[in-house]
């Protein structure tokens, strides 16, 4: 057994100590989802990559991993889109602008945007999977010249829980974006497309070798999207996916997020598909 | 605090070990009253409240009258908390469920049995929706306060899903199996800080079973330690007759 | 370095000598048939000849419950409780538990170094002691003989009439200084043999585990397993934890506490909405064993099980990690033959 130096190296961070940040804006997106704008002390940038997450903390309640929904190109504040599902997220939903929450991070791998330079970007988002991918979408839009086509496929349970209303409409209008939308079950008022997200894929006209796909959605979605991308003959090396697991520490210590031997909070949540293909617990 | 939560406390059939006034709250009582307004308490107050923020309910349901009352309580309460094993699992009262009801009535009421219609001792959750469970026979002060403070903060408390063994090991306890005893800790829900094994006693399972318990494996262990299959079942049924029968 | 002879009659005096310098933690009897490390009050209560303790000395560096933050809810502020180096002597530690601490060091140094663990760990001095393997120990099979002195400052080799006290580091030398002992000149007695073995050369372990992901043994053991988590919590190389917030009765103060957790527990991978990512008990059993023999081992080249036998000794369902691994080896050999 190799012996380790037991002195915490210079610059060792306080792994579990949050920074207090201010909620500067709250917008209700759907009955279950709100978008929070968060400002760190002094308005310093979080310094994240698209696809990374933070641990959001409410004292006496707990912590939860939440994806950063804004692009690093947004300065002075960042966005978190939060679905109300349990103890902590319910409490956060009651908070108002001016109140303060704890933030640790950014954590995780995120998308390495240098690999995307010059490529066509295909975004496949199921439900709340659009929240993290919005960071990537806006990054591409803010550095539009660096990338090829931007194709967005967004699938939602119904038209009543669609996220980011204003931006979505902007993407629909924007000639620089190819936006495809489908819902599993439309309300009577719905005039758009109905069907699960995989039904969008066969019809796409893609420059396969030059297209990088980024997938995020509920756990059951991945397998079917992969099948659809495979029958489309998109090379495996062109697929990235963001996975979700139970997390506690976010810094590779608590063990909860493991997928076989991989720590999602460190090696993920964004994975290059060839790296996790062999992990049996991944998909 | 501007609007203190309005609280009601109710009791049904139980052994009274869990009644709130049995927990020695002298030190905390003032703090508790600081946070809530108790508007209905059958023990100590007359009158009924129209609406409650939190209803604490003790005991299991064993007469048609109980059923009527619990529906009323549910209707007027925003949050309903079941207190103690009787309320949560049907408790010891549920033991009578595994014997023919006629026999039980004979034993309990003798000749007068037809004057007292009884039902099996049902957990509250088998009749109305329960929002929060405070488990144990008796429930512990520790856990009651944990749930209470959560509710005061407006957060929904999370029930521990781990086994009593985990708490036993956190305390570096000697496992009572080492002493030739048996123990239901492996499939019993944590939250009591393994209080029985910590005192050298075995866990009787008073807090109910963990989610997805492997009951067959537990039974086999009890049998391997010398119990007959029948005795093993009885040990498991003491507090969990309803859960094992799939009632709750 | 030097080797002294410490006769049985002088052990208590030697412990007192250590106590005069630092806090001493050592094994004590706990309950009827169990042992646990505890701070030494009276040297005569220390038990140096014991099979194994319930938890290892891990509990001092990664406490079972630890406050990570304290809160002031009224002001919405938090603070980290101060963590002090232990500056203590751990006396009577078995070789496998010392190895386990070295493995924990690895987990808390690599990636994001954790200050809490490292601070506690820094000042710890270790006095190892030999042991007689019982029916659960198998550390010999994972490269850790009973007399292995790795990581120790001093080591007590049991011998006729007492111990051969081996000095291994300058810090150990300082601990002994001032306590007059004769030199130990005869050879060390051969250690007692292990009764349990994993029948596989370490070089082959990698292949064995690569080929047994779908072995029927996981399902078979899962039928007996109650997912109680004991095997995780007693393991000296398990380090997973859960974190929970609590508030006091005034609802103005609170704390964030971490406590040991384990991958055998169903809730370990459960998320809001009820999804459990490692839902099947068989998958959890495999994960535990793979954590000890594959996942970390593939990176470090070493088994992450130190062969203490705790998980097997304390499993009420009699699930044995040795039997599981030997079964995997047999099945692998059968397929390859
Ligand atoms: C990398 C990552 C990114 C995420 N991004 C978002 C996002 O952008 N928006 C969003 O609404 N949700 C996101 N989630 C899910 C979010 O973390 C959970 O919904 C949240 O933890 C639920 O907490 P709760 O206290 O409200 O629920 P409870 O059920 O009360 O959970 C109690 C505790 O369990 C753990 N837990 C429960 N569910 C999850 C989960 N899904 N993932 C991890 N830990 C969990 C947490 O520690 C939590 O505090 C993300 C999860 C991960 C892993
Ligand atoms: S005494 Fe009971 S609860 Fe404690 S470890 Fe043993 S079986 Fe589990
Ligand atoms: S140890 Fe078992 S019987 Fe005792 S209080 Fe806890 S759950 Fe109840
Ligand atoms: S100690 Fe035994 S019964 Fe408990 S989780 Fe481990 S293997 Fe299963
Ligand atoms: S896996 Fe079992 S034998 Fe191996 S170190 Fe852990 S507790 Fe000891
Ligand atoms: S979240 Fe704790 S290790 Fe990944």
Summarize the structure.
Chain A is α/β, with parallel strands linked by helices and 283 residues long. Chain A has helices spanning 87-93, 130-142, 165-173, 221-231, 264-267, 273-276, and strands at residues 19-28, 33-39, 53-58, 62-67, 78-83, 100-107, 120-126, 150-156, 178-183, 193-194, 211-216, 239-242, 258-259, 262-263, 270-272.
Question: What would your notes on this structure say?
Answer:
The complex is a heterotrimer of chains A (283), B (248) and C (337). Chain A is 17% helix and 29% strand. Chain A has six helices and 15 strands. In chain A, strand 8, helix 3 and strand 9 form a beta-alpha-beta unit. The radius of gyration of chain A is 19 Å and the shape is globular. Chain B is an alpha/beta fold. Helices cover 36% and strands 11% of the residues of chain B. Chain B is built from nine helices and five strands. Chain B has a five-stranded parallel β-sheet. The model of chain B has no long low-confidence stretch (mean pLDDT 83). Chain C has 337 residues and is of the alpha/beta class. Chain C has two domains: 3-176, no CATH class; 202-336, no CATH class. Chain C contains eleven helices and eleven strands. Chain C has helices at residues 11-19, 58-61, 95-109, 115-122, 170-176, 202-210, 217-224, 230-233, 281-300, 310-313, 321-336; strands at 3-7, 23-30, 34-39, 65-72, 77-79, 88-93, 125-129, 154-159, 162-167, 241-247, 253-260. Chains A and C meet through loops of A and strand 4, helix 3, helix 4, strand 10 and strand 11 of C. The structure holds flavin-adenine dinucleotide (FAD), iron/sulfur cluster (4 copies) and FE2/S2 (inorganic) cluster. One iron/sulfur cluster binds next to helix 8 of chain C.
Descriptive key words:
heterotrimer, A: 283 residues, alpha/beta, Elongation Factor Tu (Ef-tu), domain 3, Rossmann fold, 2 domains, seven-stranded mixed beta sheet, six-stranded antiparallel beta sheet, 29% strand, globular, C: 337 residues, four-stranded antiparallel beta sheet, binds flavin-adenine dinucleotide, binds iron/sulfur cluster, binds FE2/S2 (inorganic) cluster
């Amino acid at each position: 057994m190799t012996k380790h130096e037991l002195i915490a190296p210079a610059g060792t961070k306080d792994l579990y100590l949050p920074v207090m940040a201010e909620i500067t804006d709250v917008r209700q997106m759907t009955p279950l989802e709100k978008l929070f704008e968060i400002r760190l002390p002094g308005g310093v940038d979080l310094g994240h990559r698209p696809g990374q997450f933070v641990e959001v903390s409410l004292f006496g309640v707990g912590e939860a991993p939440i994806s950063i929904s804004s692009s690093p190109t947004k300065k002075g504040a960042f966005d978190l889109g939060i679905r109300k599902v349990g103890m902590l997220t319910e409490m956060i939903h009651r908070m108002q602008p001016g109140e303060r929450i704890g933030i640790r991070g950014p954590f995780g791998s995120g998308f390495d945007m240098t690999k995307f330079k010059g490529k066509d970007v295909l975004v496949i988002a199921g439900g709340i999977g659009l929240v993290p991918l919005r960071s990537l979408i806006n990054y591409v839009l803010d550095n539009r010249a660096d990338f090829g086509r931007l194709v967005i496929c967004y699938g939602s349970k119904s038209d009543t829980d669609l996220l980011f209303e204003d931006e979505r409409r902007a993407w629909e209008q924007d000639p620089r974006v190819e936006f495809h939308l489908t819902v599993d079950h439309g309300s009577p008022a719905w005039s758009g497309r109905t069907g699960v997200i995989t039904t969008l894929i066969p019809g796409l006209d893609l420059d396969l070798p030059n297209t990088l796909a980024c997938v995020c959605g509920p756990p059951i979605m991945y397998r079917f999207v992969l099948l659809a991308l495979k029958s489309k003959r998109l090379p495996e090396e062109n697929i990235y996916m963001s996975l979700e697991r139970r997390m506690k520490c976010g810094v590779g210590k608590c063990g909860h997020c493991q997928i076989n031997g991989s720590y999602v909070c460190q090696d993920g949540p964004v994975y290059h598909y060839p790296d996790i293909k062999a992990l049996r617990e991944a998909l | 605090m501007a609007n203190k939560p309005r609280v009601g406390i109710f009791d049904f059939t139980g052994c009274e070990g869990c009644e709130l006034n049995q927990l020695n709250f002298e030190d905390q009582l003032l703090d508790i009253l600081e946070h809530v307004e108790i508007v209905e308490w059958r023990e100590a107050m007359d009158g009924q409240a129209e609406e409650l923020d939190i209803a604490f309910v003790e005991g299991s349901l064993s007469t048609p009258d109980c059923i009527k009352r619990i529906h009323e309580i549910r209707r007027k309460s925003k949050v309903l908390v079941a207190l103690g094993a009787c309320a949560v699992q049907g408790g010891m009262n549920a033991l009578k469920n595994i014997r023919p009801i006629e026999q039980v009535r004979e034993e309990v009421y003798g000749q007068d049995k037809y004057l007292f219609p009884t039902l099996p001792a049902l957990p509250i959750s088998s009749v109305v929706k329960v929002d929060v469970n405070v488990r144990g026979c008796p429930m512990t002060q520790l856990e009651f306060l944990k749930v209470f403070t959560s509710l005061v903060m407006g957060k929904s408390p999370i029930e521990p899903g781990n086994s009593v063994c985990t708490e036993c090991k956190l305390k570096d306890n000697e496992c009572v199996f080492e002493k030739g005893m048996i123990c239901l800790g492996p499939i019993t829900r944590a939250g009591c800080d393994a209080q029985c094994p910590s005192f050298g006693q075995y866990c009787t399972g008073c807090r109910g079973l963990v989610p997805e318990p492997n009951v067959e494996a537990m039974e086999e262990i009890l049998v391997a330690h010398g119990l007959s299959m029948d005795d093993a079942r009885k040990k498991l049924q003491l507090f969990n007759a309803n859960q094992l029968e799939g009632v709750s | 370095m030097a080797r002294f002879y410490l006769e049985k009659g002088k052990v208590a005096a030697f412990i007192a000598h250590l106590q005069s310098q630092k806090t001493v933690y050592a094994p004590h009897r706990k309950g009827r048939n169990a042992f646990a490390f505890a701070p030494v009050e009276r040297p005569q209560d220390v038990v140096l000849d014991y099979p194994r303790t319930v938890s290892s000395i891990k509990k001092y560096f990664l406490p079972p419950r630890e406050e990570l933050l304290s809160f002031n809810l009224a002001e919405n502020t938090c603070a980290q409780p101060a963590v002090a180096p232990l500056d203590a002597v751990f006396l009577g530690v078995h070789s496998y538990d010392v190895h386990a601490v070295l493995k924990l060091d690895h987990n808390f140094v690599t990636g994001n170094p954790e200050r809490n663990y490292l601070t506690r760990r820094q000042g710890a001095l270790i006095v190892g002691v030999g042991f007689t393997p019982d029916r659960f120990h198998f550390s010999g099979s994972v490269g850790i003989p009973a007399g292995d002195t790795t990581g120790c400052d001093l080591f007590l080799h049991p011998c006729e009439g007492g111990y051969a006290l081996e000095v291994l580091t300058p810090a150990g030398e300082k601990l002994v200084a001032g306590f007059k002992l004769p030199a130990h000149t005869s050879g060390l007695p051969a250690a007692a043999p292990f009764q349990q073995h994993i029948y596989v050369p370490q070089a082959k372990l990698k292949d064995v585990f690569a080929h047994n992901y779908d072995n029927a043994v996981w399902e078979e053991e899962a039928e007996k397993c109650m997912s109680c988590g004991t095997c995780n919590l007693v393991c000296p190389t398990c380090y997973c934890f859960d974190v929970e917030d609590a508030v006091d009765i005034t609802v103005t103060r609170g704390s964030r506490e971490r406590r040991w957790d384990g991958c055998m527990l169903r809730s370990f991978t459960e998320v809001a909405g009820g999804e459990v990512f490692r839902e099947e008990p068989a998958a959890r059993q495999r994960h535990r064993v793979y954590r000890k023999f594959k996942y970390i081992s593939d990176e470090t080249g070493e088994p992450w099980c130190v062969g203490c036998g705790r998980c097997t000794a304390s499993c009420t369902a009699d699930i044995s990690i040795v039997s599981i691994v030997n079964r995997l080896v047999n099945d692998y050999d059968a397929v390859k033959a």
